[in-house]
Amino acid sequence: MTNPNVVLHVADVHKRFGGLHALADIDLQVEEGQTHAIIGPNGAGKSTLLNVIIGKLAPTSGQVVFDGTILTGRKPYQINQLGIARVFQTPEIFADLSVLHNVMIPALAKRDGAFRLNMLRGLDSETGILRESEDMLEDVGMFASREMAAGSLSRGDKRRMELAMCLIQHPRLLLLDEPTAGMSRHDTNTTIELLKKIKSRGMTKVIIEHDMHVVFSLADKISVLAQGRIIADGTPDQVRGNPKVQEAYLGGTH
Ligand SMILES: Nc1ncnc2c1ncn2[C@@H]1O[C@H](COP(=O)(O)OP(=O)(O)OP(=O)(O)O)[C@@H](O)[C@H]1O
Fold it and tell me: Pfam families recorded for this chain (predicted)?
């Protein structure tokens, strides 16, 4: 039976790279407002799955449905316009521009439907978007750094700015690709707190993460991938106690 709370449905998806079955028989249902983690050992197919969702890769068969709309066959920018944003994977930032201007640009692009170079000229006259961007920077703890050049930020601060750049677009679904990769424990904990704060706003999130501390701190549901298949899914407690998971993942290299 269809669950009315499901907002993202990856339905019977397969992805082959030549002879390699990178995704097999994937059925993933993400409920509105939840944080759904996808975990699994290296090479399990996590990035491939994320790329299929955002339209960067076409599945060999099956489809992805978001809020009743079939995403499969659409281009990444069209999927983005439907309210799906991805963070922490090669974001386009303007290293020489201030943090504040970097946050304003995606807000303007969203309002106007596309990015135009001449947006860079009139930034300071966009008072509404300027104020909203300042609020967003306040939210992610970056207000004090708003005049700094984006290229001079530390890795942790850059990721916070990137998160603000995503949130300012008010996505309905936020995809996070290893949000704490390469971070110190302190920055990781700050990011967890930040993501919890976003969670309380009810935004749906799909998160790929290697760090089990992050996964168990944030996830409402976890799907475990191994060799391209979902071998278990459920609440963190259900997944933690699943012997198949312990064998394939938790007892493995991580
Ligand atoms: N473009 C591609 N062409 C051929 N094979 C690919 C391609 N992309 C991924 N693969 C293969 O598909 C499998 C799944 O890779 P994927 O990157 O999705 O795994 P992952 O779970 O994200 O791994 P990691 O945790 O190491 O990032 C791997 O065997 C990988 O080598």
Answer: ABC_tran (PF00005), BCA_ABC_TP_C (PF12399)
